[in-house]
Specification:
- This protein is α/β, with parallel strands linked by helices.
- 37% of the residues lie in helices and 21% in strands.
- It has helices at 17-22, 61-67, 80-84, 94-103, 105-109, 116-119, 137-145, 183-198, 208-216, 227-234, 239-258, 262-266, 275-293, 317-331, 346-352, 367-377, 384-387, 424-435, 472-486, 514-519; strands at 2-8, 30-34, 37-46, 50-59, 123-133, 151-158, 168-181, 336-340, 359-364, 390-394, 409-413, 439-445, 489-495, 506-512.
- The radius of gyration is 30 Å and the shape is elongated.
Amino acid sequence: MFLTISTSGDAAKPATDLGYLLHKHPGKAQKFSTSYGTAHVFYPEADERRYTAALLLEIDTVALVRRGKGKGRDGAPDAALAQYVNDRPYAASSLLAVALSGVFSSALRGVCDARPERASTPLPLRVEIPALPARGGAGLVHRLFAPLGWTVSAEPVPLDTEFPHWGDSRYVRLVLESGTLTLAEALRHLYVLLPVLDDAKHYWVSADEVDKLLRAGEGWLPAHPEQRLITSRYLSRRWSLTRQAMERLELVRLAEADDSEVEEIDNAVGDIDGETDAAEAAAEADGRTRSQDARPAGSEPAPEPTAAGTDETPAPLAVRRREAIITALHAGGATRVLDLGCGQGQLVQALLKDARFTEIVGMDVSMRALTIAARRIGLDRMGERQATRVRLLQGSLAYTDNRLKGYDAAVLAEVIEHLDLPRLPALEYAVFGHARPRTVLVTTPNVEYNVRWETLPAGHARHGDHRFEWTREEFRAWAATVAGRYGYEVAFAPVGPDDPEVGPPTQMAVFGLEKETKAA
């Protein structure tokens, strides 16, 4: 296997700086032992105007077979001849990528104490690989490298020059040129994309490969148009690892779009039965008497629902929210339901207990929340029949998502108050304009009710992450505007004790495409 990296320069910025960046002295040839053979580094040319570093990897085919536990390249135990007669010594593959990371590890990380300013500066680079397996052809090579700022030449290698009618082999002669990339960026592209083009790895792919991929793909992989193909091939098409990598890449994309940190996005757990419950539960325990005493003289206190099996203790507000939501879903005849902003999965869990709901999808931006939700509902222990009823998806309501189309109902329970007001229109379009379920249920705190809770300081929201809390009038005005814009009808229902002065603690809007359904 053979690869060269070249650059050009002048007296002010000599090309010989490449030797410092690679941490390899041009005055001598060097060799390094690898698990599969020997890597040689040498310099065919080295002056201030032109500098070329070459990496030659000599493969020990016997060691390759032994480390592969006697199996052939594709895992066929009877492919004895193919274990020794193959393209491994000649064609760039995952083995060359491993050699790159071992021999040029500091350059791959962008570390150079001798020339730190050059390490962070784009260089005029030229990379040549005379034999590169390309499963997908020259077209795929262009689709992988061109979006990264490379000028790509991928010349197919004929099967036999004496018999041109046999056509081309699956190998290409690759030349990459760019003046907009640093050396570290270029090496990271090669480290990931060489095994992707070969569509094979010659070592066991374990969970730590996800971390390697994300480290090498930082800054370019989240936005790459072939992200899914790259991720799947790099991880040897292992579905569980590919899904894990795609979820983490989606977090990176969302964080970049929101100008936030990944940790901040991943900790944005939806608050139904979670975040506001701590304040609400304490308020219900300490403020119930005050809520009743504060009513005007002569008025009767609103009856409070009680928990099942007792005549005295009212059910927590979180439970009443879920009960109100499920009742509204039944009334709308919904069987396929989206729980958008599902948080830790309490509503998903409740829906699973009702056989009338045949398909339940929980979606949240936070992988941490989805992991907790999966544990809560016992996703990994479910029988096959039950597991077909539920899916957990990562996604953001700030973007349209075709996975959300075609459902009977969508629930946004204690979700909208977590968005900044300027971002609400994006959610409105994603749910009401793009997904367009027949029924949409939205619950949100009623800020007027907060005065009934002694433990909630005046002027404070129920949770620190709430960007707003609306009065009943404000909520109704918003809901009416959304309904009119997207062709829905809307009705309102209280959740919890309906105080004659300040209303219920939670307000719910029930949107329905009734006119369109009847017309259809």
